[in-house]
Amino acid sequence: MADNENENQQQQSEWLIAIQDELEKARLDNEALCARKPCIYKVPRYLRESNKKCYTPNVVSIGPYHHQNRHLHPMERHKWRAFYQTINRNKHNFKLYLDSIKELEARARACYEGEINLNTNDFVKMMVLDGCFILELFRGTKDGFEELGYTKGDPVFSICGSLDSIRRDMVKLENQIPMFILDALLALQTGEGHDTHELAKMAISFFAPLIPTDEPLHKDRAFSQFDPQPLHCLHLFRESLVSKGLILPKRTKKLWKRKLTRNVVGKPTTQVTYCVSQLRESGIRFKKRETDQFWDIKYKSSILEIPRILIHDGTKSIFRNLVAFEECHPECSNEITAYLVFMNNLIDSAEDVAYLHYKGIIEHWLGNHDDVADLFNGLCQEVVADLNDSYLSGLTDDINKCRDKRWSNWKADFRHKYFRNPWALISVIAGVVLLLITVLQAFYDVFSYYKPTS
Known about the structure:
Keywords: Membrane, Transmembrane, Transmembrane helix. The chain is mainly alpha-helical.
């Protein structure tokens, strides 16, 4: 009996110790999470499951998340070529680059969500190779690849190479390295006195073909207005799209509270509740807005002005990754998501796309208008965004009120004309009955003609 009691006490003691150990692990996890400020995320499963291909790089891995993917290994030899050209052109010892980035290792690791299962040497080597590869692409686009020592027909480092596919891979959320790594590598190449905005200028020039507008961003834009400073290429690309002239919601320390309530089911949202066809029926007109900023939508005096947007086969991937970043990063507002939700609500069918295409608002190189409708209807399919604080919230309220008011006025006018006066009501009913009799008579005549009685 005593042995059983001792055994029970020992089991109880072991159980309590195990719980204490788990609590200690939880404390350490909390401290680690508080110390980390990730900005490069794994795409949430609820987004990834709907379209995995949009988030997975096709030709090149950047950073650790897809570093081991075998189908991306062929590009590794071109990264080594970029590193060689860099040190050979600048007459540098390769150890200079490794030692410099090694000093930034802890800071770089903290940028990634979760633990990175690479030792120091492998992690630093990856950062150097990926960073030099990216800088060669940026500088080659700006100055010409032949000026950097590459041949005219190079399979990667040339205008006729695989730049389009590489660009699209470089704006995928899971395919990033921190911008300060690129800045440190650029400083080694150009000297400590380099223009702090030179990297941003080169990056915007490189990504310009992906911008879904008629014109690239103005070359003279003030890069110093980026606030906060770009975290990585995707963040820089997004900021270049939305920061020019757009009055953004003020970023405050309380912004994370809005992010936590974004996906609450049943939370009322401010969205356009009518498609293009319904808005046209209510008298709202559509017009192409003359600006190269696709998000800059205006509404006044029953005229909805929407800038032109260019749709190609890479548009889905670009927008999905921008939305994923807005979903994941607590300090990021939701302008891209708001725009896509707005367009999704406007477009309900191929007919809606056809009309916007006719008005010069949508230009696309997809198979047909149905494909464009499917694209917009699917981009935010898994996103339940709280748009009450978005830059379009006031505009959507005005559109809905105008449409509802017009329908109410028309119904009231109909009731006033035909229901206040009983004789007018009788005449309407008589007219409807007469119309039905006429239709039935016509059907009977046609039917009798083709099916004569025997």
